[in-house]
Amino acid sequence: MQSWLIFVFGLGVLGQGEMCDFELVTREEWGARPPTDVQTMQDPVPYVIIHHTYQPPACSSSEDCIKAMRWMQDFHQIDRKWNDIGYNFVIGGDGKAYTGRGWSVVGAHSPSYNNQSIGISLIGDWRVELPPPKQIETARKVIDCGVQTGKIRPDYKLFGHQQVRQGTECPGQRLLDEISTWDHFSKTPPFVWVPNEIPT
């Protein structure tokens, strides 16, 4: 099977022949419902924020990863009343990237950063264990693709969710340790959102 697919931008519109070296599962392919609203953001964004899902747990087959995507959309859209699944992209243990809100769309993953970042979540609980190598590799390729296609700034800063939001373990300490070795990782975010306070 070919390891690349024509990359899909935003909510499923094909880019102008741009190709990125990973397999992308479109919203249509994983059975997403339409968003209740779409807010666009200006490209390229200056931040990338890494998450883990915690729940649902890690998935190794595409069938299970699709179930996880549907569960997350139900939880975010129905239970939390968000416009859509919160993340821009989600990475499964099958090594595939799943389109959440996609490029150029404001997410619901990191308060005060949603309109200027790409939120990428790795399915699973990565507090103690490290995600499989192919899951990590795909996350890095999504970031590289965003830079190559003008969706992420070449001088972007990379953070784990807990660095920019007080009171969460996300993306898990083991995954945070891993991303701290990646290019563009920053120890000092410009601001940290604190629950129950009005963001500045």
From TrEMBL:
Residue ranges annotated for the Peptidoglycan recognition protein family domain, each copy included: 22-165
N-acetylmuramoyl-L-alanine amidase domain ranges (all copies): 33-172
Keyword annotations from UniProtKB, A to Z: Disulfide bond, Immunity, Innate immunity, Signal
Transmembrane regions: none
Record-level Gene Ontology MF annotations: N-acetylmuramoyl-L-alanine amidase activity; peptidoglycan binding; zinc ion binding
Signal sequence residues: 1-15
GO biological process per UniProt: innate immune response; peptidoglycan catabolic process
InterPro entries: Amidase/PGRP_sf (IPR036505), Amidase_domain (IPR002502), Peptidoglycan_recognition (IPR017331), PGRP (IPR015510), PGRP_domain_met/bac (IPR006619)
CDD domains xref list: PGRP (cd06583)
Cysteines engaged in disulfide bonds, as pairs: C20-C145, C59-C65
Superkingdom of the organism of origin: Eukaryota
Function: Peptidoglycan-recognition protein probably involved in innate immunity by binding to peptidoglycans (PGN) of bacteria and activating the prophenoloxidase (proPO) cascade immune response. Binds to 1,3-beta-D-glucan and PGN.
Family, as annotated: Belongs to the N-acetylmuramoyl-L-alanine amidase 2 family.
Protein's UniProt name: Peptidoglycan-recognition protein
Organism, as annotated: Photinus pyralis
Organism classification: Eukaryota, Metazoa, Ecdysozoa, Arthropoda, Hexapoda
